[in-house]
Design goal:
116 residues; mainly alpha; Arc Repressor Mutant, subunit A; 66% helix; 5 helices
């Protein structure tokens, strides 16, 4: 069900469901309420289902929204685990003496390399 969605859309959806309002989700994500609302409207259009019932003061998850929420939480958890694993790998590589030379640190890195 999550094919073709961006991680940003999934995170925005989870935040809106957890916070109970689009404005609270916007504060949590440090975005404007209108951006959250537009992201979720695009998500609903892309999926072809209504995820929130907007008839009341606060949006409530529909049955389809509740179904998606379970998969969306799992996707966010996998993303967080992958990010943590990549951070551990980068830390372990630099702790062993390996470093990844980027454009920014290329000049200072070459000064520290042994000359044979």
């Amino acid at each position: 069900m999550l094919d073709g969605l961006t991680l940003d859309q999934v995170r925005t959806f989870v935040a809106a469901a957890d916070q109970g309002s689009f404005s609270a989700a916007g504060r949590k994500l440090r975005r404007a309420q209108s951006v959250v609302s537009q992201t979720l409207a695009n998500l609903e259009g892309q999926l072809g289902v209504r995820l929130f019932d907007r008839s009341g003061r606060y949006p409530r998850l529909t049955e389809q929204g509740q179904t998606l929420l379970h998969d969306a939480r799992a996707a966010c958890a996998v993303s967080a685990l992958s990010h943590a694993a990549a951070a551990r790998f980068a830390h372990a590589s630099t702790a062993r003496g390996f470093s990844f030379v980027t454009r920014r640190n290329r000049r200072s890195a070459s000064a520290n390399w042994p000359r044979w």
